[in-house]
Amino acid sequence: TDTMRILRLVIYPVIFTFILTSGFCQNSILWEVSGNDLPHSSFLLGTLKFIGEKEYILHEKIIDKLKVSSLFAIEDEVNHHAQHELNKAIHFAKGQSLRDVLTTNEYKKVESLFEREFNISGKKFNKKYAKLKPLALSITMTRLALHEDVKFYDIELLKLAKDLKIPTYSLEPIEREAVAFNAFPVETQATALMNSIDNFPNQKSEFEKLEEAYANGDINSVFEYSLHPFEKNELFIEEFYFKRNEEWLPKLEKMFSESKSFVTVGVTHLKGERGLLNLLRANGYTVTPIPVND
User: Fold this and answer.
1) Which of 59, 116, 286, 292 could join 35 in a cystine, given CB atoms 3.0 to 4.6 angstroms apart?
2) Three-state SS for 120?
């Protein structure tokens, strides 16, 4: 259903990328982790989380590396409890709505865009979409702008891992992501939402380029598209990416030392001085790009 799709979008909201100094000189979405006395190598995949169904591709190299792994891990749980917790996080409290954080003119501008771009009436917008917090609403705009069904990389890979009878693991409980989500003040979300509204045609165009770059396995080009205003916010970057990266690191090290692991995270978690690739390097591991678009 549309509601479930929205929930999944926010369970995995790391869709776009931001510009940070990181020193990337190698280019792939898939990385091998080795060295540091590991008994075997493991794999780290950066994903877009969702992509248009027509643009979706799962490269054979990714499937091959998953097949030889003995453990599969994603960021968060994917179950009814997780959906319930994220549902609470992405919606305003009862009796509140988008009207409470936007001016009358701003609200009309958002309502007008939904009617113009998505053929969603003001009545339907008020009843359903206005109850979403601005971050969730902005993500929903991108989803609706595709005008097609979407594929969720984590969900597809999780299904494949289960079909292969590979044990699955999540790096954190869903409540942790909800905490990170709620650390981003709703007033700041509202400002960023209006930026998305004002620049929506460009945002749609940039996402199409992002899809193409990701399908080609071109992580450097993916990182060029810094179109999502939320991810230019230092607090959001700190709370949603860097703090969680540092919490995940010891869990990853334990997994890598015990099992040949395949871990998939939002591609933005790989980026930057405190991104996972640099954190692993700093702890003595060798991270090597694996070309996927041969």
Assistant:
1) 286
2) coil
Beta bridge partners of 52: 150
Q: Is 34 helix (H, G, I), strand (E, B) or coil?
A: strand
**C-alpha to C-alpha distance for 244 and 121, rounded to whole angstroms:** 38
Type of residue at 252: L
SS3 content of the chain, % helix, strand, coil (to 5): 55, 15, 30
Chain center to CA of 43: 18
Would you call 76 helix, strand, or coil by DSSP?
strand
The burial class, CB within 10 Å (0-12 / 13-18 / 19+), for 270 is buried
Q: What is the DSSP secondary-structure string of 124-172?
A: HHHHTGGGB-HHHHHHHHHHHHT-S-EEEHHHHHHHHHHHTT--EEEEE
Tell me the residue length of the chain: 294
- H or E element that contains 71: strand 71-76
Identity (one letter) of the amino acid at 29? Answer: I
Please, which residues bridge with residue 172 across strands?
Answer: 76
* CB 118 within 8 Å of CB 209: no
Question: pLDDT tens track of the chain, all 294 residues?
Answer: 444 444 444 444 333 333 333 334 468 999 999 999 999 999 999 998 788 888 888 999 999 999 999 999 999 877 777 777 878 888 999 999 999 999 999 999 999 999 999 999 999 999 999 999 998 998 899 889 988 888 989 889 999 999 999 999 999 988 888 888 888 889 989 998 998 899 898 888 888 888 888 888 888 777 766 445 555 677 888 888 899 999 999 999 999 999 999 999 999 899 888 999 999 999 999 999 999 886
